[in-house]
Structures are given as C-alpha cells and as structure tokens.
Amino acid sequence: MTTSPIPPPSAGTAPTxxxxxxxxxxxxxxxxxxxxxxxxxxxxxxxxxxQATHGLDMPFALYExxxxxxxxxxxxxxxxxxxxxxxxxxxxxxxSASHLARQVAGIAEVLHAFAAADWWLGVVTSKPLDRAxxxxxxxxxxFATVRTPSSVGRAKPAPDPILLALIDLGVDPSExxxxxxxxxxxxxxxxxxxxYVHAGWGYGQPTSPTPExxxxxxxxxxxxxxxxxxxPFIEGSLx
Length: 239
Ligand SMILES: [Mg+2]
Fold this sequence. Notes:
Number of domains: 2
Helix content: 25-40%
Bound molecules: magnesium ion
Number of strands: 8
Number of helices: 8
CATH class of the largest domain: Alpha Beta
CATH superfamily of the largest domain: HAD superfamily/HAD-like
CATH architecture of the largest domain: 3-Layer(aba) Sandwich
C-alpha cells in the first residue's frame, strides 16, 4: 500500500469516522498538480532541463497536453526515445525546482472544513510518491491516503488508483467525489463510479459528458451541505 505523509490506516483494517450509523463515511479525493498546488513552474523548469540535456526540440505545450498521465506514458505518446533516461533527468530537475510550487489559494482551508465534517481526504495523482509527498506536506492537511503510480494497479485514466484509495478508506464509490483538472481525471472517476468535479483553476478542459465545473476551491463546500441521510429501508421493500 502506498504510504502517505500522514500514516495511512493499517492494511486490512477499515478506518472509522465519527459518523452515525445512518451516515455512511464520505471521501473527497483530489488530484495534485493543478488542483492542490500550481506545479506548472516546476514542470516547465524540469522540461527545460530535459530539452537541454537530451537535445529535445519539443515545446512544453506538447508535454502539458498529456498531464495527468504517468511520465513514461506521456513520453511514449510523444514518441520520445530513451524515455527512462529522460525520466531520470526530469525527476532530478523536478526535485531541484520543487520550491517553485505554490499551493492553490484557499484549498487548505476548504480541506480542513471537510475534515472537520468527518470526511476522509485522499490524493490520487500520477506523480511518483517521492515527489508528491513533500509537496503535499506544504498543505498540512490530514490526507488519510495517497495513491500514486508507485503503488499497485494501473495509472489514470484507469479507475485503479481511485478504487484503491476508497479501499484504503473503507468508503463506497457512491459516497466519494474526485476533484481533477484533466480529461484523464474525469475518465478515471467515471470508470470508478465516482462523482467528478472539474477544478476550473487547473490546467485542462473537461470532456463529455460535461461535468460539474467549479471556479474556486470554496465552491467545493457545497458538497458538505448536499448529504441526504440514508433512510432505513423498512416499508415498501421488495424483499
Ligand atoms: Mg492535474
């Protein structure tokens, strides 16, 4: 199981929240790049290093078009040879430039409000764990799980990392929302059976069917007031 800056629940033990028996646990899962932190300056700097080191004449805009996928996946899609070597350069340059990342204004306060309302918080990203963890630490939010390609399963747009996060938390897909900013995020959520909200402040555009699009993290707070408590299923049952 992928570790996180905050110790995740023990394997095989579903965590518990202070919810009543009629209120199932809920989870807010979020992408990292473009949603929690603006890491574009980091990526641009790392891509410049890749261009210089490997003589790659490919603009950042081409790379950026595929954000959300694993780095190696993007290299294959761009037809870049020596993808592993390029990845090494990119990783090293990204670590050196990590100080350029900036948290999205207001996101930490919103996430703390969800935590205070007994929602689980989780991160599902295609960024490797060793680079994601220090960035997430900047936010000081109680993330209960972080799923990355460093773990088992397929990467986005497959549903695997979202489903694995929900297994970590003991939350049903129907009780979870994923916040992303790229079409692969939307596809991953759809394939996992999880509601999707598109962060309009991120790097990409949603695809069809048009999802809910929010302009600021504060608009996520609406979810806190949309919970319909489950009614006991006692009359009118077909069983
Ligand atoms: Mg993103």
